[in-house]
Amino acid sequence: MKTNINRQLAIGNWQRRPQILMLLIACCLLPVIFLTSCKNKKIAVVQNAQNKELWTCPMHPEITSDKPGTCPICGMELVRKEEDSAAINNIQLNDLLQPTDRFVVSSIPVTTIQKSAESIEVGALGTIAYDTRLVNTISARVSGRIEKLYVKYRYQHIMKGQRIMDIYSPELLTTEQELLFLMKKDPNNFSLIEAAKQKLLLLGMSEGQLQQIIETQKPSLSIAMYSNYSGHIHEAGNTMPGENSGEQKMDISRVMEELPVKEGMYLEKGQVIFQIFNVDKSWALLNIFPEYQSILKVGDVVRITPETVPVNNFRAKIDFIEPFYRKENKTLTARVYFDNSKLEIPIGSQVKATIFSNAKETGWLPKDAVLSLGIDKVVFVKTGGGFKVHKVETGLSYKNQIQILSGLTSTDSVAANAQFLADSESFVKVN
To answer: Helix (H, G, I), strand (E, B), or coil: what is residue 7?
Structure first.
């Protein structure tokens, strides 16, 4: 009896085994179905997120927005976030581990050198000065004493042919007496008489004075000295007789107005008495900074505006560029000659000038693409998947561009804004 019961239980368990097996299979498949469903939902969420445009800040990537705008931290314009960027396969781990002063991984915009011949306007300041080519001197041709002086003060304007002084000269008086003696005692000796006349003319006597002596048959005790030039009169640049020969030359711009030459003074033969400065022809001395030296040349057109009378601005050309730097201002000086007879610009006036120069065709980059390290200038050159620091030689800066003299080729791509790649916590090193 007991055996039959056990047999029946065994048969029942065998009959229920497929049901248990199905239950076990269902329990195993349930997690797989659940995980697959979650994955599909996650993929759908990711796809929806990818289809949605996002905007981010180049300097603060943690800032994102679903529409264009500005960064709330730095105020920069937000840029579209590229989710489908191509993978960079050539980046090595060593590149990522390099410090920011050698290699920077970034995808900011790039630019290249633009070749052009810019028409550059260079501003300069300067002053009006005497044209030294028209500085003339009045010298004593004979030794003697000043009997009468007709000019009294410095800067006095004199005209050509104007009487300046009367000089008593024993040498001149002796030569006059020799001429009169020959004409009286040996009138047929034309060679000696002509020689005596030429000597008087060479000693400074005018033909009118000589003719008067011949007519009156009386020697003149003094000879009149006339100016051969027109202009402003100044004292001589050299020291006067009797003064220390090592004394420094007088400054023509000093306040003192009285001339050092006085009546009764003795002059030596060949001594420079006065200097005559002609203001009808003047020049403007323009101070040029060193960075513009390479583009300026003789013949460039200049517009000059006097500060005293701005309406009297005029155009001229650079006539000469001094081949040295002036010690007082460390600038190069360009001379511009002009006719001052009608403009009448006072000597020493300050002027503003604009020089129009056509530079040779050279390479230019935006100013933002060049980073200044003081003495050195660097750019970030595109290489591989990032940017590498590279030293360049720069020229002048004009408007929003900077001239590149060497260090780059026309095919090199550099970061359009080097400031984005400069780490404020590190110093960019240039090898």
So the answer is: helix
**How confident is the model over 140-156, as pLDDT tens digits?**
888 899 999 998 888 88
CA pair distance 311, 380, nearest whole angstrom: 48
Question: How far is Cα of residue 44 from the mean position of the Cα atoms in its chain?
Answer: 63
- Tell me which DSSP letter residue 258 carries: B
CA 251 to chain centre: 31
DSSP 295-335: T--TT-EEEEEESS-GGG-EEEE--EEEEEE-TTT--EEEE
Q: Rounded distance, CA 292 to CA 284, Å?
A: 18
User: Buried b vs exposed e over 266-295: b needs ≥16 C-beta within 10 Å?
Assistant: ebeeeeebbbbbbbeebbbbbbbeeebeeb
User: Model confidence over 47-101: pLDDT tens digits?
Assistant: 444 556 788 887 778 888 888 888 888 888 888 876 555 555 565 545 554 555 5
> Token digits for 249?
């030359």
